[in-house]
Amino acid sequence: MSDAPDLPDGYEFSADTARVDVGRVHGWLSADAYWALDRPREKHERAMASSINFGVYAVGSGEQVAYARVVTDRALFAWLADVYVDPSVRGKGVGTAFVGRILDHLRPFGLRRMLLATEDAHGVYEKLGFGPLERPDQWMLLPFE
Asked: Are 7 and 42 in contact (CB under 8 A)?
């Protein structure tokens, strides 16, 4: 059972990668997402191919209004990445409900932890149980760029 809010009326969640509008998602991320500006489409497509992809779609038209992907071993660990909600539907509860549906989808895997990075959406994720690293001194980063 989910503690996450329901998606607003008129929107539906899907974990079907075939439904993802790759061009639209690449456009969002490469032009409007601070973490993916100028990301080449080929690199985005490779990232999608190695991830579980999720979307929120307008019922009726099928237009995609949100996207996220999860990199995981499906046993212990997951990384929530590239969460994006179209500006036209922000503020309607789509983002929080979307991430809640993603967590519900992953729950059967029995993961030990999920990480994400955000500059400006802490409030969205805190509603769903995310918090700061308890021991950031245990984590290390090797940047390749």
From this structure: no
Element (H, E) at 57: strand 52-58
pLDDT tens, position by position, 7-42: 999 999 999 999 999 999 999 999 999 999 999 999
Write out the two tokens for 10: 């008129």
Integer Cα distance of 7 and 18 in angstroms = 21
Partnered with residue 66 across adjacent β-strands are 56, 85
The CA radius of gyration of the chain, in Å to the nearest whole number, is 15
pLDDT single digits (tens) 65-106: 999 999 999 999 999 999 999 999 999 999 999 999 999 999
Instruction: Report the percent of the chain where pLDDT is more than 90.
Output: 94
What is the spatial distance between Cα 43 and Cα 58, in angstroms, rounded to a whole number? 27
Tell me the β-bridge partners of 55: 14, 67
C-alpha span between 142 and 127 (Å, rounded):
30
Count of CB atoms situated within 10 Å of the CB of 125: 17
Both structure tokens of 1: 């059972």
For 67, counting Cβ atoms within 10 Å of its Cβ (0-12 exposed, 13-18 middle, 19+ buried), the class is buried
Question: What is the spatial distance between Cα 99 and Cα 138, in angstroms, rounded to a whole number?
Answer: 26
